[in-house]
Batch of 2 targets.
Target 1
Amino acid sequence: MRVLVTGAAGSLGRTVTVGLADRGHDVVGLDLLPEPEGFDGPWYAVDCADPDAVEAVFQAERLDGVVHLAGDPDESALPAALVSHVHTTAALIDAMVAHGVRRLVYASSNHAVGGVPRSEPVDETTLPRPDTYYGVAKVAAEALLRLAADRHGLDTIACRIGSFRAQPESVRQLATWLSPDDAVRMVEAALTAPAPGFAVVYGVSANTRGWWDLEPGRRLGYEPLDDAEEAADQVAPGPDDAAESAYVGGPFLAPSMHRPAMRDA
Ligand code: 15L
């Protein structure tokens, strides 16, 4: 497939662009930043919140799918979060509809359901329960995916990613870790699954301590192979471990994340 990857210069983006290329896909990179050394393919240093810039990319490239990873990974005031996650997704969907590109794989987040207590199951039927404005924006972006599937028949997959890291770095991440290799497996499965329509996938590895439902991903062909438990002896306990295990969103529930919606903190 010929795939546009947004956020291609980020940590997940670099992993995914290399992984997809290794698996025989043609990758077109898009990021605010210039292309990383070694990237081999077309690169667009543009803002995907700018619909004209996005349209120009789609006019220049024949694409089979989009992997939308761009976005601020941290909490911000609400307007910035909406631009970062919702405007970008909307601009991409507009261009996809205009150019007949039918597959969108989206880096959503566990923080779309981060307010769910640890005692409750987490599966594809879990209702939105954001823990932050970041999570609110991910919920809204997922709603755009749902609308695009219903209105235009696009295949749109919201990957509610846990903690993408080279290795798990905290006790919480022993449950929420997404390994680099599993990230590539997940994205490729979401890109190539036959006619999924709108789907939600939990983007985590096969962690012994994980509790989010892996079945929706498996139905799309995402079979995670890594397990954070193998690195458990390298993870030191921290003072926030108990608080972080109380809700899906872990540290995003901390009072330090609270801020006014409409003003920068
Ligand atoms: C996310 O969605 C964030 O982008 C990332 O910074 C991590 O905090 C991750 O979730 C997580 O929950 O560990």
Target 2
Amino acid sequence: MGINPLVTVVEDEEALGILLRYNLEAEGYRVDVVERGDEAEMRLDEKKPDLVILDWMLPGVSGIELCRRFRAKPDMQRVPIIMLTARGEESERIRGLATGADDYVVKPFSTPELMARVRALLRRANPSTVATLLKVGDIELDRESHRVHRQSREVKLGPTEFRLLEFMMRAPGRVFSRTQLLDGVWGGDVYVDDRTVDVHIGRLRKALNRGRVKDPIRTVRGAGYSLEAA
Ligand code: CA
């Protein structure tokens, strides 16, 4: 509960790996990028993802072979897989779907389009983690339009405050330590210190609390923060 879906990207083109990581993290997912097919198998055994984006041509083991192997593993059978491939391999599309990929995207692709497919597949596999509309007390957050309302007023948030609120709205009442917020919102790979969390919590509070409303963010001394339903 309260943990963002993990998307594992298996892609050997470094620039594309970076682009996908950036966009997936902006959607609130945790992201693991692996560059080699043979490493992907080991990585997925260690950390089971909620969705896999798999490139077709990979060093080590090909994407299509990996897809076949994943589908043979009992714990990976239901994990959605999106295959990426280069244009002009349309005949291979059939092979891709036949090996058990859930979706198929041709490069170069539109990033918003790919993000929409990721969301749709995650929603199908696990409806609660990717509900479009989150509601806690009088706060409503729409993941699709990236809009937040409190009562009927629109709350304007920066991208970090939006992700922070979304993360906390998944588990109302749960106390998150600063480290958990850093991992969940900023991602484990980025270096930011605990003070950064306090600064963004401060901004989020300021944006949410206009007029005579109750502060929904509770500071738990020595522990962290939680979001409480009014
Ligand atoms: Ca490739």
